[in-house]
Amino acid sequence: MACLCPLHLLLLLLTAAAAASGSGADEAHVSVAVAEKGLAFAKDVLIGEAVRSLTPLRLPGVEKAVRVPFLGGVRVAASNITLFHLDVGDNSTIFPGDSGLLVVASGITANISMHWSYCYDSWLFPIEIADSGTASILVQGMEVGITMVIKNNNGSLALSASQCGCYVKDLVISLDGGASWFYQGFINAFEDHIKAAVEKAIPENIIEGAGKLDSFLQGLPRTISLDDVAAFNMTFINDPHYGNSSIEFDINGLVTSAVAKTTNLQKHPQLSLACGGASKMLLLSLDEDVLNSALEVHFKAGSMHWVVDKVPDQSLLNTANWKFIIPRLYWNYPNDDMLLNISMASSPVIRITSEKIEATINADMVIDVVDGKEIVPVACISVIVSASGVVDALGNKVYGRVGLDNFSLALKWSKIGNFHMSLIQGVIRVFLNTVCMPYLNSRLGNGFILPVVHGFTLQDVYVLTSAEQLTLCSDVTFNASSLASLSRM
User: Fold this and answer.
1) Which residues in 42-56 are b (16+ Cβ under 10 Å) and which e?
2) pLDDT tens for residues 445-475?
3) CA count, 13 A, side-chain hemisphere, 483
4) Which has the closest alpha carbon to 43: 33, 31, 51, 32?
5) Using an 8 Å Cβ cutoff, are 226 and 19 in contact?
6) Residues contacting 359, CB < 8 A, separation 6+
7) 115 within 8 A of 79, measured Cβ to Cβ
8) By mean pLDDT, which of 281-295, 334-348, 377-391 is the weakest?
9) Could you tell me which residues come within 8 angstroms of residue 113 by beta carbon, excluding any fewer than 6 positions away?
10) Are the C-beta atoms of 483 and 9 separated by less than 8 Å?
């Protein structure tokens, strides 16, 4: 059995995080809070999975001698004792404690089947007398409780079952086969054994499952690849924090090079778990450093480069359209096509406020002229763009849209003489609004996949921004077959 506790699901939920960058590699930049609704969801799902993994459960048989009036010593045996059905119902609760999670399931009923037999030598008859049959057993009033403790083990999570117990209140045994109506007195020989076997076997299976889950958790990767360039740092910071009705996990959360190694971390961040009053299962908070780290990694990898050869008004990319703005460009290269070679001069910077997400982009735009078969760089303009936008989410993807706020221009170098930026400011504004912003929004509109474990889907995501922090509040759905395959790991 690999999952009666809710931690299996909770720890899968908390891998839902988004890409990003910056400094402060020794701090947590992502916090995940599994709220009361999420705990209840995890409990219900994993108890259901535990029931499936516990059934069928083979219990040890028993053989003993009993004395029966008028018959004397009788050897009785119960074998093939199998618990084949469990019904937990709605009587289950979960309690976050000071250092762990207590899950209690009460009012459980179960069905057990078994084979019974007896034999004895009677002084009345010179031969051995034997009989056998089957029995159905109804277990009533069963209660199971388990306390799970999670600790940070060098950046990974270690899980242990500190306590686990099972109590059976009552059994109803019905014998069938042979002359079973005559042997109801033998029930007392089986009842205590079956109770004890159930109370022993279920905790043993749960503890065994906790050990497998601990191995699974400690084997979780420290990084999740986002693409060929960047990886998400999933190193955990400190032990989880238990509230009255929630559990919080802190993660490094910065995006690093896909080949970079993660470090062990110790500091604890200041968290903001507000979610606009929304009642959700999962609250995911990301510092703006997370977003900046992703940009930094891609900038250093040289992936922030764009060659523009098509625009809505294609005449803008011909020197003839510039002959009155930059005359020398047209004189030197009359009626030649142009390319705009754009690259980042530094990593873009993201700032999150309570109203919006702001971005500052510092780019170099090189004007290339296609002179026959030769591409000739003729000028380089520094463009600093201020933009702002909003973030939305649907399923396991985060989307965004951005608009131009302002920009400034400066000539870095020129082979076509000096020209004033005021002359081209109107053209550049049109270019930014009709080419650059739509291009960025098309990329943002495709969405960025959150690294959520396969089989789990974020649902009804609510996005909230606050000072230096982005918070995603979400419910979660799952594919039961995916969860079952994970529970067998």
Assistant:
1) bbbbbbebbbebbee
2) 887 766 565 567 778 888 888 888 888 888 8
3) 26
4) 51
5) yes
6) 348, 349, 350, 351, 385, 386, 387, 388, 389, 402
7) yes
8) 281-295
9) 80, 81, 82, 84, 134, 135, 136, 137
10) yes
CA–CA distance, 316 with 23 (Å, rounded to integer)? 40
Q: How many CB atoms lie within 10 A of CB 486?
A: 21
Cα–Cα distance, 332 to 351 (Å, whole number): 43
Question: pTM of the entire structure?
Answer: 0.61
- Beta strand extents in 395-482 (DSSP E only): 397-414, 448-449, 456-466, 469-478
In whole numbers, what is the pLDDT of the chain averaged over residues?
Answer: 78
CA 436 to chain centre: 34
381-417 exposure pattern, b = at least 16 Cβ within 10 A, e = fewer: bbbebebbbebebebbbbbbebeeeebebeeeebebe
Residue 19: is it exposed, middle or buried by C-beta count within 10 angstroms (0-12/13-18/19+)? buried
Peptide bond into 312 cis (omega under 30): no
- Alpha-carbon 154 to chain mean position: 20
Amino acid of residue 106: S
Query: Strand, helix or coil at 314?
Result: helix
Question: Is residue 378 predicted with pLDDT exceeding 70?
Answer: yes
Determine the Cα–Cα distance for residues 4 and 153; give it in Å rounded to an integer: 22
Q: Which residues, 6+ apart, have CB-to-CB distance to 195 below 8 Å?
A: 168, 171
Encode pLDDT of 80-108 as tens digits.
Answer: 999 999 888 788 888 887 777 888 888 89
Distance CA 130, CA 480 (A): 48
CA atoms of 440 and 142, how far apart (whole Å)? 59
Look at residue 247 and give its three-state secondary structure.
Answer: strand
CA 122 to chain centre: 68
Closest by CA position to 465, among listed 282, 260, 276, 322: 276
Q: How many residues does the chain have?
A: 489
> Comparing C-alpha atoms, which of 163, 136, 160, 128 is closest to residue 147?
163
> What are the Cα distances from residue 418, in Å, to 91, 158, 231?
80, 65, 44
CA distance 340 to 383: 12
**Residue 466 pLDDT:** 82
Q: What is the pLDDT of residue 58?
A: 92
- Characterise 206 by phi-psi region: left (phi > 0), alpha (psi -120 to 50), beta (else): alpha
Highest mean pLDDT pick, 154-158, 166-170, 319-323, 375-379: 375-379
pLDDT in tens, 379-402: 999 999 999 998 888 877 778 889
CA dihedral 27, 32, 35, 39 (to 10 degrees): -120
